[in-house]
Specification:
Largest sheet: 5 strands, parallel
Shape: globular
Oligomer: single chain
Helix content: 25-40%
Radius of gyration: 21 Å
Distance between the termini: 32 Å
Length: 377
């Protein structure tokens, strides 16, 4: 079965949004606020009717939010924007034939496509195979599975970035647990919070020590059924949470699109494929060809309005002109799970309950803007 262009819509262009990530939420919001581009049929392919904002997951684990408080209602927002939501995920993309095949076997035809599926987990590739491993990607799967581990006694978190740090704090303060779990954070040889200032790393290290979270600066590995940090055994461990960054979905490289050495789709300054200009991308699935840009939700959020403007231009037969220029620095607010948070902005840092209040306010404001759009329908 093929969806997309139909005999009654030959004059209309079909835009296929593959994935419901942060950037595509901005596209839906733009369509809702300004109306969809004329003579365009827009489809949204994503497996879940909601986008879960990963930045609020640690707060939920620590009992500061309800489980579903940090979600955007994608299906409702799509309906408000005049976009058809299709439940499913992309398994193959043929940029020449301009079709996507879903996990149900449905082929979807398009004139223009935009990818914002996010990346996939790296746990198996980095750590090995173990039934105790819980990868944080995809985040919806992580939330569904972590609820089965209501009372873990010993937890290992692999990954020294901001995501791993926040999850270590959250699991140490796990609201659902009868007693506080023992937590070990394996930052790896890259160190704790690479790319952050020494002041921030110092605050985080002190907070880890204060809360009794063991920090290991050797790489995590699983051998013969045991988890280790270098030569140090971390057994017994009931749960191993992998926060090891993002890998590219295999279908991106298999599609024939130009990719970087890690398999992420290469895009230009306008979020457009460098090899197939009728395909755009943003978020973790993409890599800028013109500059190095970390895979971070912050960049996906800010690239969203740029992507929306360039898709409008392309649908109108005009060259895209907007580009996302990252700020010299971004504000990061790391929840320490104990009613406080640590702020990072360049070389500046701060810590306290007021930082957590600021984080909650920013996070909830981001979610609320889309809820208001849906309510205006």
């Amino acid at each position: 079965m093929t969806q997309g262009r139909t005999s009654g819509e030959r004059e209309a262009k079909t835009l296929l949004l593959v994935g419901g990530g942060h950037a595509h939420v901005a596209v839906l919001a733009d369509w809702a606020r300004r109306s969809a581009p004329p003579e365009t049929r827009t489809l949204l392919l994503t497996p879940h009717p909601h986008l879960r904002y990963s930045g609020m997951v640690p707060g939920w684990l620590a009992g500061q939010h309800e489980r579903d408080e940090g979600r955007v209602d994608l299906a409702a927002l799509a309906a408000r924007a005049g976009v058809e939501w299709i439940a499913g995920r992309c398994v193959t993309l043929d940029p020449q034939a301009r079709t996507v095949t879903t996990d149900s076997g449905t082929a979807i035809a398009f004139d223009l496509a935009s990818l914002d599926t996010g990346g996939v987990g790296r746990a198996a590739a980095v750590l090995g195979d173990d039934p105790r491993i819980l990868d944080i990607r995809p985040i919806e799967g992580f939330v569904e599975r972590i609820t089965r581990w209501r009372h873990p006694r010993r937890v290992v978190v692999a990954g020294g970035g901001a995501g791993g740090v926040e999850l270590a704090f959250a699991l140490r303060n796990l609201a659902a647990a009868e007693t506080r779990p023992e937590v070990a954070l394996v930052a790896g040889e890259g160190g704790l919070l690479p790319g952050f200032s020494q002041a921030v790393r110092g605050r985080v290290a002190a907070a880890l020590m204060r809360q009794g979270i063991a920090l290991h600066l050797s790489d995590a590995q699983i051998a013969r059924g045991a988890i280790r940090a270098g030569e140090t055994s971390l057994e017994p461990a009931e749960l191993i949470v992998a926060a090891l960054g993002s890998a590219a979905p295999e279908w991106v490289r298999a599609s024939g699109l130009a990719v970087d050495d890690r398999g992420f789709m290469l895009v230009d300054a306008h979020q457009r494929s460098v090899s197939h200009p009728h395909i755009f991308a943003a978020g973790d699935v993409a890599a800028r060809a013109d500059r190095k840009l970390a895979h971070s939700g912050v960049h996906a959020v800010f690239a969203g309005p740029v992507l929306a403007a360039n898709l409008r231009a392309a649908l109108a037969g005009k060259p895209p002109r907007r580009s996302y220029h990252p700020r010299w620095n971004n504000l990061y607010l790391m929840n320490t799970g104990d009613g406080r948070a640590i702020a990072s902005y360049g070389s500046l840092s701060a810590e306290g309950r007021w930082v957590l209040a600021l984080k909650h306010r920013i996070d909830k404001r981001w979610i609320a803007q889309y809820a208001r759009l849906v309510d205006q329908a």
